[in-house]
Amino acid sequence: MEKAIRLLIRSDHVPSAPGETFVSAPWLRALPAGNPDLLSLLPVADLNAAALRHLDPPVRGSDRGGVFTALAMVDPFLRPRDAVARLRRAGISGVANFPTMQIVDGETARAFEGAGARTTREVEMLEAFVAEGLRTIAFACGADGARDVARTRPTMMVLHPGVALSDWRQRAAGALAVQRLIEPCRAEAGCPVLVYRPEGFGSELDQAIAEADGEARIAG
């Protein structure tokens, strides 16, 4: 059996070991204290500007091949070709659609859809980055989102159980829904499928993570 993948989302972009794989999200430093999944969706910081501004040319001999930069792909001002040029100058050849607007539902989701900030936009951006030759870590939440994201054929896929609600039964239901998506996503995407453990989730996700190819979480 292959070793489980442990994918960290960190606020830096410098590998601590050659070829280390992780998601770089420098904008985490700009968020106020609280739930980063939700706060990152609010207009409290320009996430993509922060992600790209902190990039610097690689030190000679360094290897950033395993670094994936976290970008808010629903941002209407995100231009993949411009972002790719900056990423490549920094020796980075991968991106992730993190944070993902897919965790928002109900009336709030419909409001975002009206502004063009929806799963369709994230999928289009993932496809655009793939077309530019970049590798992708694709986050997905919910059955519809997972199906659409899997079709982009990412390098790695991460299933998000949604916001951690106070009722443990709702968290358990979210975990079970993720567990049921693992095999279909493996078959469709043809890549490793991980489970994301958001802040507030505990043992509810253990079984899903055990059946997946690994776990993703924010370092801390």
Ordered list of secondary-structure elements with their pairings:
Blueprint: E1 5-10, E2 22-24, H1 36-39, H2 47-53, E3 67-70, H3 80-89, E4 94-96, H4 106-114, H5 119-131, E5 135-140, H6 143-150, E6 156-159, H7 168-189, E7 193-196, H8 206-211, E8 214-218
Parallel strand pairs: 1-2, 1-8, 2-3, 3-4, 4-5, 5-6, 6-7, 7-8
In short:
With 220 residues, the chain is an alpha/beta fold.
Could you describe the 3D structure shown?
The chain has helices spanning 36-39, 47-53, 80-89, 106-114, 119-131, 143-150, 168-189, 206-211, and strands at 5-10, 22-24, 67-70, 94-96, 135-140, 156-159, 193-196, 214-218. Helix 6 (143-150) runs parallel beside helix 7 (168-189). The protein has a single domain, classed as Aldolase class I (TIM Barrel, Alpha-Beta Barrel). The protein has an eight-stranded parallel barrel with strand order 1-2-3-4-5-6-7-8, surrounded by four helices. It is of the alpha/beta class.
